[in-house]
Write a structure and sequence with these properties.
heterodimer; A: alpha/beta; five-stranded mixed beta sheet; B: alpha/beta; nine-stranded mixed beta sheet; two-stranded antiparallel sheet; 11 helices
Chain lengths: 111, 283
């Protein structure tokens, strides 16, 4: 399973980022392989439409779960249609911590 | 002759100038007044009347799911995020679409055709003898103001005297309003904000090759900064409207100073004549 965590930087120890469409990085964790792939978000300074376009990035990377802080309306529509579950990272500080909490069932679902 | 009334800063009195100018011209051979502030048109408040409506359609993509291979080309091409290609279908966010048609071009299997979607209306009324009022009205949540403005301007035609009341600012809607105009009346107030935004509007008009002049509104008699700015930029000061209790009272009850106060009808007629002289000089 591929879990995407929005982050301020690259790698497993990156600090989580509350914004979805304008998160600096998307960290994709492969829970079976135990690997983390970081993708720079090219849309950080885009004028608009960043929600659905970021959702497209998740679809392209075959993510089925997203851990982030908050979502806009269009992003929510696209993620829901794509069947991607969305969770809030709560008090987790890093991508690894967020993933651990998710695996233990400790994160609340926001979509 | 086609004249734009613009300002840069909002609330300086564009609509006041447009409405009063139109009133004076309606009584002197006729005028077409076009409300190009399509996000918040308000000239109809000064000139109520029965109107006819015409829809403003824009082309948007329709995807043939039989042909679509979900290759993702359209979604990656669309910089507005209007198309998201999922594993089993394509999602379309109509309010994000800018109707560029790019998706139809990049689709390798011709699965996308364009269909019309209404984003606003253009209304036409004849509220006074000699006055045709055309208003562009964009629906809430829509973004393609220039398309609604273009349709409103087209409805106004090229004949006779036409006044375009622009929206505030100097973004796309104002650029669209200025396109093809003969002259631009810039309404300002003698405040630092008014002058700052006047400077932007002056530069926008100049970039489009539209000659401009200035109307100073709410003048307290100390307009040195505005007058100096106009001299420096070679802009004629066409009219000065005082910061006056009588003027404010007429405005407050939604009246027209050209109709309700003595001498103002003549002043607005003279404003038009002054603009006409500048247009001839330009030609």
């Amino acid at each position: 399973m591929i879990v995407c965590i929005t982050a301020k930087g690259e790698g497993a120890e990156a600090t989580v980022e509350p914004r979805f469409g304008r998160a600096p990085y998307f960290v994709f964790a492969d829970t079976e392989a135990g690997t983390f792939v970081s993708v720079k978000n090219e849309l950080v300074d885009a004028a608009g439409g960043v929600g659905p376009r970021s959702a497209q990035v998740l679809v392209d990377h075959s993510a089925t779960v997203l851990i982030t802080g908050q979502l806009g309306g269009n992003a929510a529509t696209a993620l829901k249609a794509a069947g991607i579950k969305v969770y809030s990272f709560g008090d987790a500080a890093t991508a690894t911590q967020a993933l651990e909490k998710y695996t233990q069932g400790g994160l609340s679902e926001i979509l | 002759m086609k004249i734009v009334v613009a300002s840069g800063k909002g609330g300086t009195g564009k609509t006041t100038v447009s409405a009063n100018l139109a009133y004076a011209l309606a009584r002197r051979g006729g005028v077409t007044l076009v409300d190009c502030d399509v996000e918040e048109p308000n000239l109809h408040l000064f000139f109520p009347g029965e109107s006819e409506k015409k829809g403003v359609p824009v082309p948007v993509p329709a995807i043939d799911s039989e042909r679509c291979t979900l290759c993702g080309e359209c979604g990656h091409f669309c910089r507005y995020g209007a198309l998201t290609v999922l594993k089993d279908r394509v999602l379309f966010f109509s309010e994000l679409c800018h109707s560029c048609g790019g998706c139809t071009l990049v689709c390798p299997v011709d699965a996308i055709t364009e269909v019309g979607r209404e984003i606003g209306v253009v209304t036409t009324s004849h509220p006074l003898p000699g006055l045709t009022l055309i208003s562009g009205v964009m629906y809430e949540g829509e973004v393609l103001a220039p398309k609604v403005i273009a349709d409103a301007k087209e409805e106004g035609g090229d004949e006779g005297r036409v006044i375009y009341d622009a929206s505030p600012g100097v973004a796309c809607p104002v650029i669209e309003t200025l396109e093809g105009a003969d002259f631009c009346i810039l309404v300002t107030e003698s405040t630092p904000f008014g002058l700052h935004d006047l400077d932007l509007a002056v530069r926008a008009a100049a970039a489009l090759g539209v000659a401009a002049g200035v109307v100073i509104n709410r003048s307290d008699g100390e307009d040195d900064a505005a007058v100096t700015f106009c001299q420096e930029h070679d802009l004629p000061v066409l009219m000065t409207i005082p910061f006056d209790r009588e003027v404010a009272a007429v405005q407050n009850r939604g009246g027209l100073i050209a109709r309700d106060l003595p001498r103002w009808e003549e002043r607005f007629a003279e404003l038009w004549d002054e603009v006409a002289r500048h247009c001839e000089v330009k030609v």
